[in-house]
Each structure stands twice: as C-alpha cells, then as structure tokens.
Design brief:
alpha+beta
C-alpha cells in the first residue's frame, strides 16, 4: 500500500509558481481515478495546503467551506489561486480557487487562527464501538471483486477503512438506518507535518460521508442508474490528531429531499478526543427510491 500513500503525498506536494499579482499561485497533479474524475477530497486537501502556505506558520486552519463546481480531469494539472482576504490579530482568512482549463472546479474559503486559550469541552465518543483490529479491512473485502472500481477501492486508496456496520459498496445494509461508523488511518506513516495531517484529514473525510444516506434508503454504490456528486463540504478542526493512527469517523444523515442529501460526521482519536466535525451535502438521484 506504499504506492497509494506516495501518490497522496505527491498530490499534496504543490509547486509554487513564484507568480503573484493579487493572488498566490500554486500547481498540483492528481491521483489516478478509475472514472477519470478528480477525487473531491484530493482537491479539497490541496486547497488546504495552498492556503496554508500563505499564512504565518503559527496559524493553523480551523475551518473551511468549499463548493465543488465542476468535475476535474485527472489527466490535467490543477492551478490553485489563493486570495489573502484578511489578516487580523488572531485570525487569517483565505479564498482558494482551483482551476482546470481556465475555469474553477472548486471554490473554498478557509479561516486560520493562532493558538489562544479559551473554553474547552467536547461531545463524548460513542461507547460500544469495536476496536479496528477486530474488523475486516474494506481492502480485503473488495480484493476478490473483479471490477475496476472495486479493485481501486481495494488497492488504490491511501487509507485503511474498516466499517463497523457492513459496508454498502455492493450489497444493501441489513438495517435502513441513517448512521454508521468507520475506523480509518493511512496505510503508511506520514511525515511529522501538522499542516499535512490536517489536509490529509480533509482528504479522508470525503471518502464515505454520503453513505448514511445510501444506507437509509437501501441503496449501494453499485445501484444501477444512480447519480451521486458532492456539492459542498464544510469542516472544522478542533484538536490535532495524526491520520496515520486509528481515527473513528461517526456519520449520520439528518435529511434528504429534492435530490439532495445532507450528512454530518465527527472524527475522534482512538482515545476519545474530538478532532473534527464535517458536513457535506450531495446530489443523489436514485431510480425508484425506497422501492
């Protein structure tokens, strides 16, 4: 699994062009995907890296709000333009646009803060979750399926993912509930770079967040005729955690209506620290829903 991790690190290693008028310009490459479209989590993580390079080293990203505007092409480089919107005494704000062929494929605003003292509380991690070592890796579950997407999910991802409930890749869930939990971590150890780990967490947060909607309606990723696309992605980092250590991703969907579904997630360290909160709305068009 070292090649997918190397591919992730290569994608996040943006090149600074040296050009700057009103914006800072960076370029990056994409990881291969079986359908030829750029993975949304990748361009989101790259935008985190690009914007982070324009703020003071003691200010870390604490939130982002991004919109996926167009599908990206894995064969084309991506240009990132960062607008330094604001630098205050404690906070900095950046807008990052990701371009291919002269048009934006993602637009993101992110906020950064230096380390400040303040109130501290968090929601507790759910109890009764089995340890990741007791669960089968999704990679092992998918290796025997002769399909290009299944093979990519099995061998091309940089993250080991282990569903607490049965996954909904090709078979319907036993229970139609709008929640699930997943253990995840990178297959290989990553460099000791906090910005990189925060970006990689954004990357991994996009893998499975729409699955509670599929689970609730008895659908799978292989449902014939289904069309799925991420529309937007919001994320708040609360505490630092390494993505090469086991993280619990607790997900639920509070609503689906009008061909759109909303899902939220909370990411905990193994010892119970709440590291991040995520929200995403997606387009989901399923033939004969709930049939």
């Amino acid at each position: 699994m070292d090649e997918p991790v190397a591919g992730l690190l290569s994608a996040l290693d943006l090149t600074a062009t040296g050009a700057r008028t009103d914006e800072d310009i960076f370029t990056g490459v994409s990881q291969w995907m079986p359908m030829g479209r750029v993975f949304g989590g990748q361009v989101l993580a790259q935008s985190v890296i690009a914007s982070s390079r324009t703020v003071a080293p003691d200010r870390n990203i604490h939130s982002l709000h991004g919109y996926f505007l167009r599908p990206g092409d894995v064969e084309q480089p991506i240009t990132f333009a960062v607008d330094r919107i604001h630098d205050g005494r404690s906070f900095s704000t950046r807008r990052t646009q990701a371009y291919q062929k002269g048009v934006p494929i993602l637009s993101m605003i992110a906020s950064f803060q230096d380390v400040d003292p303040g109130l501290d509380h968090q929601i507790a991690m759910p109890e009764g979750i089995p340890d990741p070592e007791s669960l089968v890796s999704d990679s092992d579950l998918l290796k025997g399926i002769d399909h290009p997407i299944a093979q990519y999910w099995a061998t091309g991802r940089a993250f080991d993912m282990r569903h607490v409930e049965e996954p909904v890749y090709f078979e319907r869930a036993k229970e139609r509930v709008a929640h699930q939990a997943i253990w995840m971590k990178s297959f290989e150890r990553l460099p000791d770079d906090e910005i990189l780990h925060r970006a990689a967490l954004a990357y991994a947060s996009d893998y499975s967040l729409l699955e509670p909607i599929l689970r609730r309606h008895g659908a799978t990723w292989a449902t014939p005729g289904m069309k799925v696309a991420s529309l937007d992605h919001a994320m708040w980092w609360h505490r630092f955690g390494r993505v090469d250590e086991w993280l619990l991703y607790v997900q639920e969907s509070p609503n689906a209506l009008g061909g759109r579904g909303l899902a939220t997630g909370r990411i905990f360290s193994r010892d119970g620290l709440l590291l991040a909160t995520v929200a995403q709305e997606g387009m989901l068009r399923i033939p004969n829903p709930d049939s």
